[in-house]
Amino acid sequence: MTDWDYAPAPESRDVVRLRSSYGLFIDGRFSEPVDGSSFKTVNPASEEVLAEVAEAGPGDVDRAVAAARRAHTDVWGPMRPAERAKYLYRVARLVQERSRELAVLESLDNGKPIRESRDVDVPLVAAHFFHYAGWADKLQHAGFGPDPRPLGVAGQVIPWNFPLLMAAWKLAPALAAGNTCVLKPAETTPLTALLLAEILQQADLPPGVVNVVTGAGGTGRALVSHDGLDKVAFTGSTEVGKEIARTLAGTRTRLTLELGGKAANVVFDDAPIDQAVEGIVNGIFFNQGHVCCAGSRLLVQESVAEPVLDSLKRRLATLRLGDPLDKNTDIGAINSSVQLDRIRELAAAGDAEGAQRWQPACQLPDRGYWFPPTLFTGVSQSHRIAREEIFGPVLSVLTFRTPAEAVEKANNTPYGLSAGVWTEKGSRILWMAQRLRAGVVWANTFNRFDPASPFGGYKESGFGREGGRHGLEAYLAEGNETLGPPKAELSGDGARHG
Amino acid sequence: MADPRLAVRKTYKLFIGGKFPRSESGRSYEVGAADGTFLANAAQGSRKDARDAVVAARKAFPLWAEATAYNRGQVLYRVAELLEGRRDQFVAEVADGEGGSPAEADRLVDAAIDRWVWYAGWADKIAAVAGAADPEAGPYINFSVPEPTGVVAGDAPQSSSLLGLVSVVAPVVVSGNTAVVVAAERTPLPAITLTEVLATSDLPGGVVNVLTGRTGELAAVLAAHMDVNAIDLCGVTGQDVAALERAAAGNVKRVMRPAGEAEDWAADPDPQRLLAFTEIKTVWHPVGV
Question: Are A441 and B281 in contact (CB < 8 Å)?
């Protein structure tokens, strides 16, 4: 019998020059923390320590915010917008030039398949900087009044699921609008943000315009509660998002939140089943399901539930799980042992509450953090696996009979980030799209992103949009808005009152 | 000589779900004119009244949100028409409550009527201004449209009993939201009289609900309510703002903070208040044969 197994096709990691330790990127250069410590970042596919990384303390956050304030007042605020644009174009080009290095490092630190970091994450990063570069000198035409002004200094806290892409989503619009930034990458994935800092050095971005403070939750708290910020942007869990909103209560600091999700992916009986199955797989198994907008609840019309599930199981059996640097790999490593524990706990709750677990035969590597692609059928709306964000490769399958029931079930969640609809009937797509309470509705596709298009949530999935013209709003003072904190006068920052 | 005729006074009640209930608590409070003379007893709304108002607003939301923009625009315009017809009554109530000259009250009522007209015209233009059809780097097309946020709670400005109220309610409902609004605490009577206009303007019951009472008490209930999607704090002052914002974080409410300085409600509005209570939805579809 012919052996159809794939031979391994690993991407070389030689393109990445890992340093044994990394400092904080403040005021244009790397420095040791003044009151922090350090932590290790590991490769989740092997548990190998990749590097030692500085953990910023409150004093370091102070330094970073002060550097950003100086840069905003002295350089970035007064700079001609067309010049700001050219810096961002430079960054986009440098990201393209160093794309392989960024992709390999992302897969090493995060555990995602190289196919995704190479073909999705990094290209979107370059595209995002390229898109917002062009906005920098067109802000007065963006529909936010004739004289839109930057807010000042933005503190930005990003998650570990798309480390570099989320950095780009945060930095590009903020910088284009004339703000300066202090970025806090996630504890388990700091390395590509630090490589991006090196790229910013290569671009000759003025010191202090972007600062990167690595660390864990304590660093994040020190940043978002810092009274020198005009703006906080956060992507991460709904729980932490609520904590940040409470922290900023009663201040004049502006806030945008991009939080969790529990998206319904609705498959009608007239859907093209093969395409829908690809969309279901892409919806929940892309990036190991570490996606806030993942299609984690499959709502399939009862009349086609059996053929859809049969087809889905056949497809899952062909997914290849393993070495993230192997170009054949579909499913990489779970990002951390903490996340793996959470996925296991919720999957166990699925068993305990009476749902039926199905997993394809799947060999898990001996070392590293892994979870096989998993389906739960017989799920009811009250089950934890139907209500809570699992943030892993676990799909909960529910059924419905009528379109109205599909809408009812899809919207029966405190979240509202995304939704999917699969049907060949155009009028039904639009009818569903009008009723699904979610910021992004993918019809006959799923998990598509573009820097020109807005992305963000309804309800407890957060507020504000990232991407496109809409994404600028979070970083601009509008109309007759007056920003409150007296620190503006103290710092002599005229742009805020301009 | 005949005795002068004794006037028939109005009982000022709440406006919930298109009906005019008293407060379930049985409480009321004295409302005085600017010069201190007694005007009326207004209902002092309770936690239960606030919750009932949210239930009514939630119930009204789907149909109002699905009404065509043209229809919503006409309903808001009709509010202006009916307000115009009763302008003398509003001028008298605003002058009584806020003090100032009759000419000033006259101008405030004119501005309130014109504000309904201004927002009515926005109904079918919001999408043109805030929506988009963005180009994708691939075989996809998507469009983005603003949609109403849901149930919006508001604390009406304390300084402007009619114009301020209209300025915070009209931008909320024109896009399809439903509203629960707490009237100015000391000057609630024009708000209640306005509900008589709303009740006869083809505005479906529950789209606007008006509570009177202690702003602090009612605002706290609404800020913490898990079925309220957004809250406008413009009628709240001082330390209360932080506490209400903390409560609002419980379900990630959109919060409109009070302006830093006293707001001039007579100034020409911009669409910011309207857009603040909308959500952008982006719908994608592949392109192919």
Answer: yes
